[in-house]
Design goal:
The protein is mainly beta and about 525 residues long. It is about 10% helix and about 35% strand. The protein is built from three helices and 32 strands. Strand 10 and strand 11 form a beta hairpin. The longest helix has about 35 residues. The protein is elongated, with a radius of gyration of 30 Å.
């Protein structure tokens, strides 16, 4: 077997600057995950940036006598000096006014608030990969009361923040001040709560704990998500379970005066006519708030903060896309999804794909491997696969293989998608032998394949955006640990009938894994790029 070529990249922050006059556009039908990583501070032009250049051409006047000439010379000099002084004063005053207008701090007159939206988007991202620093190196945190890091992450790599409520542990960011007043913002995180009774704070900032709209707290209150500005609050509808990973998002839309909370990417509560958070000072706290004597008890990971209101489609993407390989990144193994779970390849090359580049598999040792599939390792949990295929040959071949270990065949493993020997597409899960055998696939033609699963609907097969078959409600068993996926091969065996496993000869493009069941509308959109 040929030596495996492995490409590894690390998570690097991306920055996007929005200049005055620019309009931030979000295409909800396309996935662009780099927009989470927006700029930290970028100052607008000040008076020192402005330069006055003045050129004058003064023509000689006929002499009218010594005294008269002296008089006019003095008068003209004073007039010119006064004009220059007036211009300088206008420039200074105008610059000062612009500086005030372009800040986020509002003016309050007779209990009414007016403000101008800032053109700069500020962001911070705490990955907690063995430190509490902001990936943009601006809002670095400090561990408080013995808070630590754990390798028990959702995706099985890196670290997360581990907090114990017995010691009131947290992370605090004191400087520089992060201004969240009178502006839109979004806070997202992955959480795993060991205890969810009372108030379990995820994120907070507080100027005055008894003043309306001056204390921000994003918490779990008695098992439900809770978003509060103090006497200006929103509670979610769904009760969370302990010892379970969740993606949570808290959004405030300043232009619409709306508070929204999302659980697993789905809207769980909204409040309209919500006045903005008005705190003008205070540290950022992760894991505690001024309103509770209890800290969060469990794990917090990948906490993202940005001063814009993310759309519902962006949040659903962040919460449900596990990996996305378009094979158009800086390397063929780059995951362009929100989690950056880069893979490794063996003897696969870039070729022209369905959209941009694709990945061509052409031999017994040709495959792509990715680790970190928590959801797939849990029995009867929803998932979806989506990909384009262009077979060179349709006489069998593994498309998607799932296993508990990378190369050890003694562990749990199975082919989940592949071709039969006769050239039909087939799906399989360990659910009492339930499988779907689909239509014949043509060689040297593109076909879009989607495999969805939920306990309620069972397995559903979509071909080129159209539902082909379904099993109905069913359960399945899995490894119980974080799984591997091998694309284009089943290098450790475990092939169930009717899939004729082994090397796939052809091209794969636009490969997605989701931690939810896609809808028919979702599938149609993916099949029509």
């Amino acid at each position: 077997m040929s030596t495996t070529t492995k490409f590894v990249t690390t998570r690097q922050p991306q920055v996007v600057y929005l200049e005055r006059g620019d309009v931030y556009e979000n295409n909800e039908d396309a996935y662009d995950y780099q927009d989470d990583r927006l700029s930290t501070h970028r100052n607008v032009n000040s008076a020192s940036d402005l330069e006055l250049v003045r050129k004058q051409d003064f023509h000689r006047q006929p002499s009218k006598g010594k005294n008269q000439s002296s008089f006019y010379t003095s008068f003209n000099g004073l007039f010119i000096a006064g004009g220059i002084l007036l211009v300088l004063v206008i420039i200074i005053v105008t610059s000062s006014i612009l500086g005030i207008v372009l800040t986020r701090n509002p003016t309050v007159l007779n209990n009414s608030t007016t403000t101008t939206t800032a053109t700069t988007v500020y962001s911070a991202y705490w990955s907690f990969d063995n430190d509490a620093n902001d990936l943009y190196e601006t809002y670095n945190g400090t561990l408080v009361n013995g808070a630590t890091f754990s390798s028990s992450t959702y995706f099985g790599y890196g670290y997360n923040l581990a907090l114990n409520d017995s010691s009131y542990q947290s992370v605090t960011i004191t400087s520089p001040f992060f201004n969240l007043s009178y502006t839109s913002f979004t806070v997202e995180a992955w959480i795993y709560g060991v205890a969810l009774t009372g108030d379990r704070s995820i994120f907070s900032q507080c100027q005055c704990s008894s003043c309306q709209s001056q204390c921000l707290y994003l918490i779990i209150r008695n098992y439900k998500m809770y978003m509060g500005f103090m006497l200006n609050d929103l509670v979610g509808a769904t009760s969370l379970s302990t010892n379970t990973w969740y993606h949570v998002a808290y959004v405030y839309d300043y232009s619409r005066r709306t508070q929204s909370i999302y659980l697993q990417g789905v809207l769980d509560g909204t409040k309209t006519s919500a006045s903005p958070y008005q705190g003008q000072n205070g540290s950022l706290n992760i894991g505690i708030s001024n309103l509770s004597s209890s800290s969060f008890y469990g794990y917090i990971d990948n906490l993202k903060l940005t001063t814009r209101a993310k759309s519902s489609s962006e949040i659903l993407t962040d919460a449900s896309v596990v990996v996305y390989f378009p094979f158009d990144g800086s390397s063929l193994t780059q995951d362009m999804g929100p989690n950056q779970m880069n893979g490794s390849i063996s003897n696969a090359v870039a070729v022209i794909g369905k959209v941009g580049n694709g990945l061509a598999f052409s031999g017994l040792s040709s495959y792509l491997q990715v680790y970190g599939f928590y959801q797939l390792g849990r029995s009867s949990q929803s998932f979806s696969f989506a990909l384009w295929i262009y077979p060179y040959s349709v006489a069998g071949g593994t498309l998607i293989h799932k296993s508990a270990f990378q190369y050890n065949s003694s562990g749990w493993c199975q082919d989940m998608m592949g071709l039969t020997y006769a050239g039909q597409i087939a799906f399989y899960t360990n659910g009492g032998g339930r499988q779907i055998t689909g239509p014949f696939i043509s060689a040297l033609q593109w076909a879009h394949i989607v495999y969805t699963y939920s306990f309620t609907n069972g397995q559903i097969m979509y071909i080129n955006g159209v539902q082909y078959a379904a099993t109905g409600s069913m359960s399945f068993s899995s490894s119980g640990i974080i799984d591997w996926l091998t694309i284009g091969h089943n290098i450790i065996g475990c092939t169930p009938s009717p899939i004729y496993g082994g090397a796939f000869f052809g091209i794969i493009d636009e490969f997605y894994v989701f931690r939810r069941e896609l809808s028919a509308t979702d599938v149609y959109s993916l099949a029509n790029p």
